[in-house]
Each structure stands twice: as C-alpha cells, then as structure tokens.
Design a protein that fits this description.
The chain is globular and about 75 Å long. By secondary structure, the protein is α/β, with parallel strands linked by helices. 35% of the residues lie in helices and 24% in strands. It has an 8-stranded antiparallel β-sheet, covered by helices on one side. Strands 5-6-7-8-12-13-14 form a 7-stranded antiparallel β-sheet, covered by helices on one side. The structure holds 2-deoxy-2-amino glucitol-6-phosphate (AGP). The site of 2-deoxy-2-amino glucitol-6-phosphate has 15 residues, from helix 8. It comes from Candidatus Protoclostridium stercorigallinarum. One of its GO terms (biological process) is fructose 6-phosphate metabolic process. It holds the Pfam family GATase_6. Its EC number is 2.6.1.16.
Length: 572
C-alpha cells in the first residue's frame, strides 16, 4: 500500500519525482503529493486522486529545488483528502515526511504531541512522525531520526526532508521495505524496486540513512554499516508494450512466466505434511493445488487464508511445513502468518515473486516465481506462476512431464479471447454471476470470480459446484451467468447434471473445458487444452481472466487500478 519516492541530483525535480510516482502508483492511488527542498524552505504540493492530477498541478511550478520526496497513497488512517495526503510537515515546517506502514502506538504519540502544544492537522499516523523529528531535533538530524524510530511501534518506511539541508533525504525503516538507488551525481529512495534507479541498496530493518547526491551513508544502532546490495531485483519491464492495459500485457506474458518458473524450480521437491497460506489470489492458488498436494504426498494438506491462520488455535507445526504464498511478498497478513508459523515450530517455505521482499526475509527457504514485475492490481501472471511453481515442486512421476507442458497449454488457452469477449456480454453490474467447479477447479473458479469482482464490481460468487444447491441457487434467475469449470473427466456426469440444473432455472452456462460433451451442454464454451486435472488451474484460469478483462472493458472500468484497491496490502 502506498508508494514512496525520493530524489536528489541534477534532474528536474518535479519530473524525477513524477517519474517515480507513476511507477509506484499501482501501490495506491487515492491521493499523491511531493515535498520540495527549496532554498526558501520546504514546499508541499498535494492533490486528491491519481498521480496524473498531481502532475498537472506540478506542471507550472517554478522551483529551485534539486531534492524532494513524493508519495502515492492508499488511505488507512483518515480518508483520502488533501489534508491527509502525504508529505506531512512538522509543526515548525522544518521536516517533511512520507510514510508507508502503520504506526500502532499513534494514539499515544498524538497525546505526546498534544501535551507539547502541537495540534496535528490530519487524521494520519504519519504526520506524527514529522512532529517527532522536529521535537527531537537538537541540531543533529541523524540523532532525531534515531530517537523518532525508537518511539514508533508498528511498521514504517519513512523518507524525510530537513529544511536546513536542501540536497539531503533521510530514510529509515522497520518491517516496510525501502530501497536506495545510487548513480554518479544523483541518488534516490523508493519503497519498491521498480522505482529505484541506479545501483540498488536495501536499507535493512532498523537502519537509517542520509542520502545526498554524493551517495548514501547508513547507520544501525548508532554505528555506520554497509547496506546490502540488491542483485537480481526485478527492475524494469515497465510500460504496457503496446497493450491497452498492464493487465492484458501480463495475461499475454503468462506462458513465458510459467516456463521460467517451472524451469527454475524443476529440481525442487515439496513433500510432507503441508499447510498453504495466502491471501486473495494467492489463497486461491493454494486451493488450486490442494488436490495435487494430497495426491502426491498421500496425506492431507490444508489451506488457510493468512488472516485466519493467525486466529487458529496454536496449531503445532512440528514436522510440518507451512508454505506462505505471496506475489508481492509484502502482504502484511501473510508475512505475519509466516512469522507466527515459525514461532509455532513450522518449517517455512515462501513462494514469492519479489526477491528480497519481507516474506522472503522471514522464510529461510524460498521458491521464487519468475513472473517479473506485475503492475496491474488484478494479478494474472502472478497467480499462474504460483500454481506452476507449486505444481513443479509437488508433481511426481508422469505428472512432472505434464507440468513442463503447462506453458504451451497456457499459450493455447489464450486463444479463447474472442469467445471470452462474446461471453462478457452476458455479464452486467446489477446481475449476480457464479463461478463454480469441483476439486482443483474450485480454486480456479474462485480466482475467476475474484478477477471479475475486482475489476468490474459485478457481484461474482465463487463456489464449489456441489454447494450451489445448498442456498446460492436461490440467486439464479433468467439470464444469470454461471461459469462452470470442468477439467476432471471422472466428474463429467456431475458437471453435466450441474449444467442442466442451472439451465432449468434460466441460468446461462459458460463452460471452461476441454470436453466436447460439456461444451455442447453449455450455452457458450471457453475451450482450453486437455491438461491433467490436478495441474489444470494454471490453464483454466486464463479464459476467465480474459472474460473479466473484456467485461471490465465493456463497462469502461479502470482496469489496472480498480476502485478501493492497491497492489499489495501491507496493513493487517
Ligand atoms: C488479486 O488480483 C488481488 N489483487 C489480491 O487478492 C492479491 O492476490 C492479494 O492481496 C495477495 O497479494 P500477494 O500475492 O501479493 O500476497
């Protein structure tokens, strides 16, 4: 949630900050702002809405600043108004601050400020950080930074300007990532590798830095340290490469992403007693591979949403492995669940797309997916790479060869686009839609429903097909679209019965299948190649992604940045 950027150097400052904010906008986009270190003092320019609106505001700005910080926000403390928007100034305007994360003791800190006669103007926890910096400032900013960081409980990545040093950015962090970019004569800071330029250094947990055009100096507990250099960070691949949206570009990138992932994990094995943990699509990926895990390990496996895992009775993990799945590696619930699992004695494996993310630092063992940067808020290649990664590590015997064929099958599934576009006409915002399937198809169906919900705002319900008749069928009326995923030949009779039951009530069946008979029983078929049921979700999900995309396009939705959402949910 939220993106931080900072720049100091010779480039035009508003252009440099705008460039970074555009790249980070997918992290949060309800308001944005910058602070510029001008010779006459700190100047803050903010606006509600997208980065483009801020850039419009910045266009006519005349400034002598060569250093600044910027922020794009996804509101947690306080609504998305200009007052709550970052950067926040301290009471004496000597410090400006941008912040990612959540300050858990903000009520106590607010009282502390009020006791000193400071009246915070916003509803945010972030503003308090600026006030603390000024309160603790006695001529040495680094010691004010250190004292401020010590006062904060919770997670934070902070970039700050001090009015007395117009070419310096101060940065400090705990639990939220912050990356320093160093190039000759210019330096920067960013909360995400995609916006870091030059050589990238990861500011460690509890470290703080002074960044100037000459380079970065980093401290920890009062001592100078060298920050870790990041290699293999997923930088680049920005821009939509001619596609109308990142989502479509990322859908098209899926065969390559799956191929790289499978190749890189071809020698890894995942076995034993397993519990998969994730949120949203990553949880759906867990559900998608549960039958495969049970089949391969010949014992039960379980899947938890990370939030629920945290609430379970203290399940002992002795002899068991918790597989924490996250595209971003920054989802707060998943990171917290992984920490909790470690504390309960589970052995841990992270399946993440972003190396050097919070999750990969918590888990000793990692299996990285190779999807490359994913920008669209709705995940596509992130999901299929997760399923491909887990399938590569779980499959045994002949299934392993089938896993290697997944990228080609995903490529073929992309051919369903024209039919998906036709099927999209059956969906409307005031009409519920269903996505159903059995066994491994449940995970795929839930993911299909989530895709449609998040980018079209159509109430889409994902269910195990057998559950339909236990209540939800009451919603089916003339024209209700029901996407029926069928990939397991052994379940064909059940699938045909479900299709008939839906049609008898006026529902329109859209089958996602390789099977001719099931396709013929449906009103419309989205054909996929025949792949073994246990690994099929990586393929069957593709037509549903295309369906969601075209339905959103018809409704003129903001496809890459749906309302109320952010790419990674870094608050619990
Ligand atoms: C998927 O399209 C969503 N944007 C969301 O459910 C996402 O999968 C979830 O927030 C988990 O993210 P992660 O994989 O980065 O942990």
């Amino acid at each position: 949630m939220c993106g931080i950027v900072g720049y100091t150097g010779e480039d035009d400052i508003t252009t440099a900050l705008g460039r970074g904010l555009e790249k980070l906008e997918y992290r949060g986009y309800d308001s944005a702002g910058v602070a510029l270190a001008e010779s006459g003092g700190l100047r803050v320019i903010r606006s509600v809405g997208r980065v483009a609106k801020l850039e419009e505001k910045l266009r006519g700005v005349v400034t002598d600043a060569r250093c600044g910080i910027g922020h794009t926000r996804w509101a947690t403390h306080g609504s998305p108004t200009e007052i709550n928007c970052h950067p926040h100034l301290s009471f004496g305007r000597r410090f400006a601050v941008v912040h990612n994360g959540v300050i858990e003791n903000c009520r106590k800190l607010r009282e502390l400020c009020e006791d000193r006669g400071i009246s915070p103007v916003s509803d945010t926890d972030s503003e308090l950080i600026a006030h603390l910096l000024e309160l603790f400032f006695d001529g040495d900013v680094i010691s004010a930074v250190r004292r401020t960081a010590e006062m904060l409980e919770g997670s934070f990545a902070v970039a700050a300007l001090h009015a007395g040093e117009p070419d310096v950015i101060y940065a400090f962090r705990r639990s939220s990532p912050l990356i320093i970019g160093v190039s000759p004569g210019r330096c920067g800071v960013a909360s995400d590798g995609c916006a870091a330029e030059g050589d990238t250094l990861l500011l460690g947990d509890g470290q703080y830095a002074r960044i100037s055009p000459a380079g970065a100096r980093v401290w920890e507990n009062g001592k100078r340290v060298s920050p870790g250099r990041i290699s293999g960070f997923a930088v680049g691949s920005h821009g939509t490469a001619g596609y109308a949206h990142y989502m479509m570009k990322e859908i098209a990138e899926q065969p390559g992403a799956a191929a790289r992932t499978i190749e890189s994990l071809s020698r890894r094995r995942l076995s034993g007693s397993l519990a998969f943990i994730g949120c949203g699509s990553s949880y759906n990926a867990a559900l998608s591979v549960l039958p495969l895990a049970e089949h391969s390990a010949r014992r039960g496996a379980s899947a938890f949403t990370a939030g629920e895992f945290l609430l379970t009775e203290k399940l002992s993990g002795r002899g068991r492995t918790a597989v924490a799945i996250s595209q971003s590696g920054e989802t707060a619930d998943t990171v917290a669940a992984a920490r909790e699992a470690a504390a309960r004695g589970w052995s841990l494996l992270a399946v993440a797309n972003v190396p050097r993310s919070s999750l990969t630092r918590v888990c000793r063992r990692c299996a990285l997916t190779q999807a490359g940067p994913e920008i669209s808020v709705a995940t596509t290649k992130g999901f299929t790479s997760q399923v491909a990664a887990l399938a590569a590590m779980l499959a045994r015997g002949a299934l392993r060869d089938e896993v290697r064929r997944l990228p080609a099958a995903i490529e073929k599934a992309l051919a369903a686009e024209a039919d998906a576009e036709t099927a999209a006409e059956l969906f409307a915002p005031d009409k519920a839609a269903f996505f159903i399937g059995r066994r491994a198809d449940v995970g795929a169906a839930l993911e299909g429903a989530l895709k449609l919900r998040e980018i079209t705002y159509i109430p889409a319900i994902g269910l195990a097909a057998g559950e339909l008749k236990h209540g939800s069928i009451a919603l089916i009326e003339e024209g209700t679209p029901v996407v029926l995923v069928h990939t397991d030949p052994a379940l064909k009779d059940k699938t045909l019965l479900t299709a008939a039951t839906v049609k008898a009530r006026g529902g329109r069946v859209i089958a996602v299948t390789h099977d001719d008979e099931v396709a013929a029983a449906a009103d419309l078929a989205l054909r996929i190649p025949d792949v073994p049921h246990l690994i099929s979700p990586a393929v069957s999900v593709v037509p549903m992604q295309l369906l969601a995309y075209h339905a959103a396009l018809r409704l003129a939705r903001d496809i890459d940045k749906p309302r109320n959402l952010a790419k990674s949910v870094t608050v619990e």
